[in-house]
Amino acid sequence: MNKQIASFYHRITAFFFPSKELRGISILFFFLLFFKILWFDYSWCLISTFRPFSYVEMYIFGILLSLVLLSPFILFRRSFIVWLIDLIIGMLLLSNLLYFRTYYTAIPLSSYGLVDNLRDFTSSVYGSLRLEDVMFPVSTIVAAIFYLKKYRKKNMPESAVINKPGPKKLTVTPERLVLFGRYLLFVFIFSLSAKGLLLVKGGFKN
User: Is residue 43 a contact partner of residue 130, using CB atoms and an 8 Å limit?
Assistant: First the structure.
């Protein structure tokens, strides 16, 4: 039975992620993004309540968001895309934490485009920083070190990740489009499974 499950698992992973290198790098980047999202939730709950951690919805949302943020890397196979997304997400999450610690609410969407508001907000930034905030840059540094040691120095095949010198051109090949379609199918299946789980969970509650 265990051999059958293992065989099925290998067939599924080989279908969605044929390249072992791509699979490993994708897992690394996924956990980096997922950790940041969970750490944001943890830091937010430190000054509110930890009740959200008892709901499966929080973890499902974090997984789905991480998968969506990872999709540009799956398509273009350029690691700098993930590092850029990680930087932007980290800054947005940390900004919301600092804002919440000052005003006890999330940053309104309308305020993101108002640069003048940053002057009033900057004065309270240093006072709102906490020791746990260091995990946002530290997680990126740890992931970068692991990536450089395990993947960057290897001669990656075309089917995995392009690490060639020169301009970082975003190119898409037919093979990548096929694998990207499989990845979207994987995300879709996970979304349906998660929705089914939540429906069953709600049914038991009722």
Answer: yes
Task: Spell out the residues 6+ positions from residue 10 whose beta carbon is closer than 8 angstroms to its own.
Answer: none
- Distance, CA of 181 to CA of 92 (rounded, Å): 29
Question: Phi and psi dihedrals of 63, rounded to 5?
Answer: -65, -45
DSSP 8-state class, residue 107: P
Q: What is the predicted pLDDT for the residue at 105?
A: 80
Compute the C-alpha angle 31/32/38, nearest 5°. 80
Q: 157 with 19: CB under 8 angstroms?
A: yes
- The average confidence (pLDDT) of the chain is 81
Cβ neighbourhood burial of 66 (10 Å; 0-12, 13-18, 19+): buried
Angle at the Cα of 90 from the Cα atoms of 71 and 143, rounded to 5 degrees: 70
| Residue 157 confidence (pLDDT) | 47
pLDDT tens-digit profile of 114-136? 555 555 556 666 678 888 999 99
